[in-house]
From TrEMBL:
GO terms for biological process: 'de novo' pyrimidine nucleobase biosynthetic process; 'de novo' UMP biosynthetic process. Keywords: Decarboxylase, Lyase, Pyrimidine biosynthesis. This is Orotidine 5'-phosphate decarboxylase. GO terms for molecular function: orotidine-5'-phosphate decarboxylase activity. Catalyzes the decarboxylation of orotidine 5'-monophosphate (OMP) to uridine 5'-monophosphate (UMP). GO terms for cellular component: cytosol. The keyword Lyase applies. It comes from the Bacteria. It is an enzyme of class 4 (lyase). Pathway: Pyrimidine metabolism; UMP biosynthesis via de novo pathway; UMP from orotate: step 2/2. It comes from Edaphobacter paludis.
């Protein structure tokens, strides 16, 4: 099934409370279909907020970046499944045993599809070297992505810079979810490896994650609509 632009944009709800997050959701209702709930909001609101979004008809990308021993991660996936999220992240650096346990736990009915986070978009070669990884970001991303694919994970999270090589090396099957998206002329913030929506889509991205360029815009709905149109032009799809 061909993805529409709305299927390919997730708005990051990086807020400390349900009220502030729902204020933005209300502004984007009718414009966006997917919302990403990260650690800040999830730890403040729990599964109840995910259920609220689901009850309003939205799809939820639960970005918890699980990274622990295999048994603990498997249990966390079973707990998160009860909320009804459609996507859930784990860290690929947790290793093959952890990812295999995650894959097995996600076989239960109504489980979310799993995404393996490779290298955070806030990290560059210097940050990797500081933790003992001497490979380039691209080589490290590819190594972890191949490991995730072999472990049965549904997709990967990577920066726009690695999307092209992952699509080339892994084929059309895996979901490639791309944060670090900045429309032309917007503030880079703390991100290191970024690109515009057009470049990310052209490199093979399945879904783009956009936070501050939308959530801090003077008119969030207008900005989101502009990004959706850019996705449409880049992907050649019609809404």
């Amino acid at each position: 099934m061909e993805l529409t632009p709305k299927d390919r944009l997730a708005v990051a709800l990086d807020f400390p409370s349900a009220k502030s997050a729902l204020d933005l959701v209300d502004q984007l209702s009718g414009t966006c279909q997917w919302f990403k709930v990260g650690m800040e909001l999830y730890y403040a609101t729990g599964n109840a907020f995910v259920e609220t979004l689901r009850n309003r008809g939205f799809n939820v990308f639960l970005d918890l970046k699980l990274h622990d021993i295999p048994n603990t991660v498997a249990g966390a996936i079973r707990s998160a499944t009860q909320a009804g999220a459609s996507l859930l992240t784990i860290h690929a650096s947790g290793g093959p045993a952890m990812m295999a346990a995650a894959t097995e736990a996600a076989q239960a009915p109504d489980s979310p599809r799993l995404l393996a986070v490779t290298v955070l978009t806030s990290m560059d070669a210097a940050q990797l070297a500081a933790i003992g990884v001497t490979s380039s970001p691209a080589d490290q991303v590819l190594r972890l992505a191949k490991l995730a694919q072999k472990s049965g994970i549904n997709g990967m999270v990577c920066s726009p810079e690695e999307a092209g090589i992952l699509r080339s090396e892994l084929g059309s099957g895996p979901l490639l979810v791309i944060p670090g998206i900045r429309p032309a002329g917007s503030d880079v913030g703390d991100q290191k490896r970024i690109a515009t929506p057009t470049i990310a889509i052209e490199r093979g991205a399945s879904m783009l994650v956009v936070g501050r360029p939308i959530t801090r815009a003077a008119n969030p709905a207008e900005t989101a609509e502009s990004i959706l149109k850019e996705i449409e032009r880049a992907s050649g799809t019609d809404r």
